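Two folds, back to back.
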Amino acid sequence: MTPGEETALDATRLEDLAQGALVLAAGAEHSSYRASLDWARASIAEHGPVPLIRPGDLGSERMCVTVSLLGSSAALAEQLPTGEEPRRAVRALERRLGRTADAVVPLNTAAENALLAVVTAASCGLPLVDGDGCGRVLPLLEQTTFTIAGVDVAPVALATPAGDVVVVEAAGSRVEELVRPLVLAAGGWAVAACYAMDGARLAATVVPGTVSRALAAGSPGHGDPFALWQPKPRRLGIGRITAVEHPATPGADAAGGTALPSRPTSVVVSETEGLHRRFRLEAHNEVLLVLADGAPAAAAPDQILMLSAADQRVLDVERAIPGVEVEIVVIPAAPAWHSPQGRRLAAAGGLILLSPDLEPDARRVKHPDAERPEETRW
């Protein structure tokens, strides 16, 4: 958004957002994405267009609430929403805080979360903030630029499709381990309203412009989804997947921290042009590290994506198959993620640690062959 520009998300712009939100959706389930899109379409049809506002438009007297889908996106497709979950989550948080929400901001603008934010804003009659709390995707609820800046994730209000409403208050580092069992017991997914803050603090901590970025990426005529991104993503190379490996026992991370809600995966890509390097992508929920001929080439907190060379769509590591040609792309993280606090938070529960000079510490990366992984080779 440019100064003075007013944007409303109507039915047409919603389709642009839905398409652009897939750019960061490395693990999107097609069925849950379609269910979320249908939900957003119905919300816009019932409640009308959603105003899109800049983070600085709120001011210090108004409150913004962050919303996110928690749990398994696949469970969303199996247990469809009633439509009341976002409104009930926001109202529960309002009751706990004794304040009324004035705007909604997405935790991130990838796939279901971008669409859920539209549903929440429409059903609550609130504007949507053009920004989010990540600028990318990370698997844990407390992994946000809000946390880096000292904003508490709690209280967290959860609303489930079964009609449950639960408010959780805990130290930020314990929220994930308390919330996850609740979500599983409730059927596998829930809507969370959290990170309540005033507009001034939001403007200082949010990653701005991410909704507009997704809208631009999804607009017709943009063949390159990264055409309008700043800074520009870095393209490491194009190659063919030659191996996909999974450790036999995922378990908790070696440091004893919070384990990520997925299994470790390694993807080997042989470059088919240029230097003909051998890339190894180490992933846990998402790609966390890329080695090129054994040397670190990219690492979290930057977001690393595999794009199908055929159609430029994001390829989830869980769906990587030997023989598929992919392009490896690195999207620079928001500056907050490259601060010492940001690097520590991004590495929480991950497979790698980042050294103070922003380079992956190769000494801390366990050699994948030591785990005798199950392996699928071409």
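---
second:
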Amino acid sequence: MSTPRPDLAAPHWLVQLLRSSPVPVPWNMVARAVVALAVPLAIAYAAGDIAVGALISTGALPAVLSESAGPYRYRARRLGGATLAATAGYLVGLLTGGTPALSVPAVILIAAVSAVISAAGSNASVAGLQMLVFGVLATGQHATGVRVEVLFGCFCLGAAWSFVVALVTWTVRATSPERTAVAHVYVELAAMLSATDEAVSRVARHRLTTAMNTAYDQLLTARSWLSGRDAAYRHLLNLLSATTPAVEASVAMVNAGRRPDQEVIDHFVALSAAVLAGQPLPPPPPMPPGDPDPVLAALYAGLVRIGRGDDRKRREPTPWYRRLREWAGSLASGPLTWIAALRLTLCVAIAEVVGLLVPVERSYWITLTVGIVLKPDFGSVFGRAVLRGIGTVIGVGIGAAVLGLGAQGWVLVALSAVFAGGIAVGKVRNYGIQSAFVTPLIILQMGLAHTGNWSVVLARLVDTVLGCVIVLVFGYLLWPGSRRPQVGGRLADGLDAVAKYVSHALVEAASGEARLARSRARRGAYRALADLRTAFQQAVVEPSANGRQAVAWWPVIAAQERVADAVTEVGVTIGRGVPPPEPADVELLTAALGELAAAVREQREPRSMPLPDAGQLSGVVDQLESAFDAVRGPDLAERAPLRLVRRFLPYHRRT
């Protein structure tokens, strides 16, 4: 029987596209954005020249747009790289602007470079985007009549100001982001164990996986900057490592449909508070009298281990030259980066030509829209183009209302603060929301600095629509492979990760190295599942074969998660009065998962595979059979890429 589709797949793709992520408002980011963007305007207005404040506020935008939660060291590197790249792009744009023979090749070259350096990682990708955005923006500044050195000086002042605002609390908060990330793991553990509904508990398990991944990423990133003697980071990382057995036992208990005593849930809440406050951890609750079952015993043993902590070996930081060599290797080993760079460069070139041929005011906004929407590794191109268009229309309406009401002085400063806060909220909620607030903010900045009027509003609307059309036509509809389904390959990789987890989780880990390998395999499997859900969320918004395939694959994704949870349920009992399964049975499970992965990659039905009949593995076998049924489900034809549908359908009908 095929696993039922979730509500996520039922509504129209546009509903999914407009759905806002249910995450808390990042008030810290909102406050920093308001201070970084509105304070220069307020000071300049009080001094009698708000136009200078608008120029400085423009320089503060790169850090605000690149802001991200995480450790201060990580944010310093991310924001510093983005600010420097934006400053370099802005300078090139200023020096070449006004002369199409120079500005057009410069913008195209910046676009190609920004796409190529994206392969170096997330921070490099953000820096490349800011370099492109502000390089394009600067090419239109020649029309202001302000000297280049004044424009560049104001931009640098604003960039420095926003960088200081983003990191000013480093000296007093220090490890607070990392403490918050670790404490959040305990909060999600308590939420998962408190859930009384299966659907709610599964969502809570997803949030727990995200919290674990975030905490590990932040701590490992922070420690890579240190000499290895920082006690605070070492303590937090050891604490998180020691929490892994409790996480595994909690997932096993939820998968079995059981709940622990309230004292266990309260203990996780107390652990969270102690970590946040930097206080000693509370003692774990005693195990209930009697002979508890292995899963419950594993949970209480995990609580005791949290108090003891682990002694992890420090991961040695990767030298810069090795990271550079890996980046160069990624460029040489595969075509994906070059294809993305070619697509971005081509669309930017088309936008530049359109800006020269079509008589529109401030035509550089066409290229700006193309660069923002089509930048690699930022999700669905189709989704971003549609959301950018919708957000801009709304933003233009807001900007038109501001200009129509004739707002002046402190009212403009207050409105800029509101728009700045909306950008911070939109970054974590929905790209369309971010666009809706970025648009009126830039309209105000341009209007204050360049004697703006209604033409600014109309130009913003026309140029953005043209840019979105260029992206949709040349970067999506006509670009080879842009609509080709991609979720299936990620699903096969996830099945391989689960198979690796099975080979480590269902054997007795007698040594510390074996336990560490099992822990890493578990994190790898659940991280792959989390990445797969992210890929699904990005693809499901497309009204193409890619979106249809994502919807059709959803039952298999859900079944894969249940297989991993069932494996965890068995794994936590091994060594606690329960012997491990026979090696031959473990090999049968890994072989079955391997066959599923091969079937997904080859777009065929999986062959029937022998499965263990041991009672200990009955839960895993049941979920694995459900996964096989899901792959053989009625939507199998939708999962095949377009180039394989015609060849595959006759075989599917025969079966």
